[in-house]
Amino acid sequence: MSSRQKTTGLRRVARIASDWVDLQWSLLIRALGAVAPRARGLLLDVGCGDKPYERIFRPYVDEYLGIEHEATFSATAAKVDGSSRPDYLYDGNRLPFEDGAFDTVISIQVLEHTPHPRLLMAEMARVLKKDGALILAAPFSFRLHEEPHDYFRYSPHGLRKLCAEVGLDIDHIEQVGSLWTLVGHKLNSYLALHVARIGSAAQELGKLGHEAPGQPRARLWTLPLVGPAILAISAVARIMDRLFFERQEALGFVVVAKRV
Q1: How distant, in Å, are the alpha carbons of 35, 159, 190, 200 from that of 137?
Q2: At what angle do helices 223-243 and 23-35 cross, to 10 degrees?
Q3: Looking at CB atoms within 10 Å, which of 134, 148, 231, 236 has the fewest?
Q4: Chain centroid to CA 79: how far?
Q5: pTM of the predicted model, to two decimals?
Q6: Domains along the chain?
Q7: Tens digits of residue pLDDT in 158-199
């Protein structure tokens, strides 16, 4: 095995491990996997970044297209290091597509970053076919990120109202996490990003693409303590969520909505 293959293998193992301890990410991926079979036909990913969710939805659709807000995308690590780029860039106002152009529209962890969420919702509804599906994920409790473009958090009731205002009806909701994974994620985020400062290492693995590049230098000397603590917190949080699931606490929600 060549040194390059070994390096690639180590990076893959590191990414798998980091995804598992990243409770928000892994639980979001699970929720998206549960709703992905509802996608079909021509799909538009609004706020696609470097298309991290394409592998989940691609088996169910004929074509996967991504679009990004040009101004905000240019300031993220995904712009610099992303292996997959948006197919379209736009100014954040009108999506450059005809009415009813897509069978499926997805928007994952994007709605909190627009100062005018109703406008974005209306545009996604406009380009959706009458029998099409909108798959939307939004955070309910999450740290400040992609600042200063971080404006809102959403309950399922708020998402239902936003959908109703633009002619969409939610027929399915997936809760992302519960009390214990919420607390565990916040603890792990603090340990990883503020104590060990491994944000730059995470970006090298293809994570934190929504954040600005050039994260602070890692404190490698903390890893012998921080690493096992993060693993333990992740494991305990997952177990506690299974034993004592709390409906009123969540990291976020994934909804599926149809045109009314």
Answers
A1: 11, 10, 23, 25
A2: 40
A3: 148
A4: 16
A5: 0.89
A6: 3-259 (3.40.50.150)
A7: 999 999 999 999 999 999 999 999 999 999 999 999 999 988
